[in-house]
TrEMBL record, chain A:
Residues 15-132 form the Response regulatory domain. It comes from Azospirillum rugosum. Its EC number is 3.1.3.3. InterPro entries: Bact_Sigma-Reg (IPR052016), CheY-like_superfamily (IPR011006), PPM-type-like_dom_sf (IPR036457), PPM-type_phosphatase-like_dom (IPR001932), Sig_transdc_resp-reg_receiver (IPR001789). This is Sigma-B regulation protein RsbU (Phosphoserine phosphatase). It is an enzyme of class 3 (hydrolase). It comes from the Bacteria. The modification 4-aspartylphosphate is found at residue 65. PANTHER family: STAGE II SPORULATION PROTEIN E, STAGE II SPORULATION PROTEIN E-RELATED. The lineage of its organism: Bacteria, Pseudomonadati, Pseudomonadota, Alphaproteobacteria, Rhodospirillales.
TrEMBL record, chain B:
This is Anti-sigma factor antagonist. It comes from Azospirillum rugosum. Residues 1-101 form the STAS domain. Transmembrane segments: none annotated. The lineage of its organism: Bacteria, Pseudomonadati, Pseudomonadota, Alphaproteobacteria, Rhodospirillales. CDD domains: STAS_anti-anti-sigma_factors. InterPro entries: Anti-sigma_ant (IPR003658), MlaB-like_STAS (IPR058548), STAS_dom (IPR002645), STAS_dom_sf (IPR036513).
């Protein structure tokens, strides 16, 4: 913000158009504005003349008379406001009409402010300055918002790029016999959810899913930190509990007080027909075999990451036969309000049961997400992934 | 979320009501300041009327625990029920905060 909105530059740089059919009035206003420090002033003789000059002069403000031949001030103001480019332009009406009805009519036509003739020089300049300052502030805010939006969009693309690509997922399916379909939706531009699929040194599929506390930019930055930590980890013979313990130690050193993450890390063991996993307070994984009527809710108690450096994690496992499926989700899916309570895991499990026979991943997840959205507002990041054993 | 403080001889009891989420950051900060000014060593958060807590809310409870411990006070989470109790249990927070029924 180079231009301080309260500096004299606001008036010096401002472009003001004076619209009045009376030549004496026009010159009076011109002299007045010049004395106040305004340098760029355009004069128009009536509404038509003013509208014709708009695009070339591009005013920051208009001083508008109401009673004019050809096109009067009311009608000109209405036409001006119909153009989106000028909908926020300050229009200060200066008129000898001083009945309340005239003022109301001017404001209804789109005027920003109103002063009555005879003009009080000090008051007019004060009002001109206020409107120009507001406009400069609004302009700065708009630029700032645009820049923030651009940067957030960029950051979001970067975050999405941390996730496995469809090509990578196809490659992993061929190598590990595990297919994954995921839905990833931050509640704002950026979120604190993150998931990954890798292959360990024994050719097994390793899946991780994390949810940092809070959401927005702060939580999103932590997903980048976690990704960096993941790149340095040993995946030769994946042990979920040891993995969580190591990540926890690293995060304890990084996360400020009050921030933490819940995480699930697991590996699909084809030989044992099991999903072996450890949880740091994640949601409960759901698993089912072909023909099951409802999913099994597996245990997930565990201290979240980033709270206690010495924390250890329990290794658990659940059956996952060929054709079996695993459903993982962030807490956004179970914290949807239902009556006085929340949906919670059993509520979500019954939604899964309702479409348990749907073998198409996309239709399964889309159907589930539609059901969730129909349940209530989702105001947290929402990640859901369905993993299927194809081999 | 709103709260009521009852300052007793042996302990300060703060009753939290409603939903504790991301948006209550300012309120919880103010509450922590109030708790720091009371005399009792035992600072009890009575959660029986708290209906919901999200991850940011848990984070704020952990900050409260730390702030109390910095001045040699003890934070106790008491009588959690429903979703709040389930969240505290799944996160095994009894490992780092005193939790009472």
């Amino acid at each position: 913000m180079n231009d301080q909105p309260d500096s004299p530059q606001v008036l010096e740089n401002a472009r003001v158009m004076v619209v009045d059919d009376n030549r004496v009035n026009r010159h009076l206003l011109l002299a007045l504005l010049e004395r106040g420090g305004v340098r760029h002033i355009e004069m128009a003789e009536d509404g038509n003349d003013a509208l014709a000059r708009m695009d070339q002069f591009r005013p920051d403000m208009i001083l508008l008379d109401l009673m004019m031949p050809n096109l009067d001030g009311f009608e000109m103001c209405r036409l001006l406001r119909a153009d989106p480019a000028w909908k926020d332009l300050p229009v200060l009406v200066q008129s000898s009409l001083n009945r309340a009805e005239d003022r109301a009519k001017a404001f209804a036509a789109g005027a920003t402010d109103y002063v009555t003739k005879p003009i009080n020089a000090v008051e007019l300049l004060a009002r001109v300055r206020i409107h120009l300052q507001n406009r400069a502030l609004l302009h700065d805010l708009r630029l700032f918002r645009e820049r923030t939006e651009t940067e957030l969009a960029l950051a979001r693309k970067m975050q999405e790029r941390l996730l496995p690509t469809p090509d990578r997922l196809a490659e992993l399916e061929a190598a590990t016999g595990v297919r994954i379909h995921a839905h990833f939706a931050p509640s704002s531009e950026l979120g604190g959810d993150f998931w990954d699929l890798r292959i360990d040194g024994r050719g097994r599929a390793v899946v991780t899913m994390v949810d940092f506390s809070g959401h927005g930019v702060g939580a999103a930055l932590n997903t980048f930190r976690l990704h960096a930590i993941g790149q340095q980890m040993d995946f030769t013979d994946f042990s979920p509990a040891a993995f969580l313990a190591t990540v926890n130690k690293r995060l304890c050193a990084l996360l400020p007080s009050g921030q933490f993450a819940t995480m699930l890390a697991g590996v699909v063991d084809l030989a044992e027909n099991r999903f072996v996993y450890a949880s740091a307070g994640s949601t409960r994984p759901m698993l089912w075999a072909p023909g099951d009527a409802e999913p099994t809710l597996a245990e997930s108690a565990g201290l979240p990451l980033g709270l206690l450096p010495s924390a250890t994690y329990e290794e658990r496992s659940a059956p996952l036969p060929e054709g079996g499926r695993l459903f993982l989700y962030s807490d956004g899916a179970i914290e949807i309000p239902v009556g006085g309570d929340v949906l919670d895991e059993p509520g979500l499990a019954s939604m899964v049961a309702a479409r348990i026979g749907e073998t198409d991943d996309r239709r399964f997840l889309d159907g589930l997400l539609d059901a969730l959205r129909a349940t209530g507002p989702i105001d947290d990041d929402l990640t859901a992934l369905v993993l299927t054993r194809t081999g | 979320m709103d709260y009521g403080i009852e300052d007793k001889d042996q302990e300060t009891v703060v009753r939290l009501r409603g939903r504790l989420t991301f948006n209550d950051h300012g309120k919880l900060r103010a509450l922590i300041r109030e708790m720091l000014q009371t005399k009792a060593k035992r600072q009890v958060l009575d959660l029986s009327a708290l209906e919901f807590v999200d991850s940011a809310g848990i984070g704020m409870l952990l900050i409260a625990r730390e702030e109390m411990s910095n001045v040699d006070k003890l934070l106790i989470l008491r009588a959690a029920a429903g979703q709040v109790k389930r969240v505290l249990t799944v996160a095994q927070l009894n490992k780092i905060v005193a939790i009472e029924d």
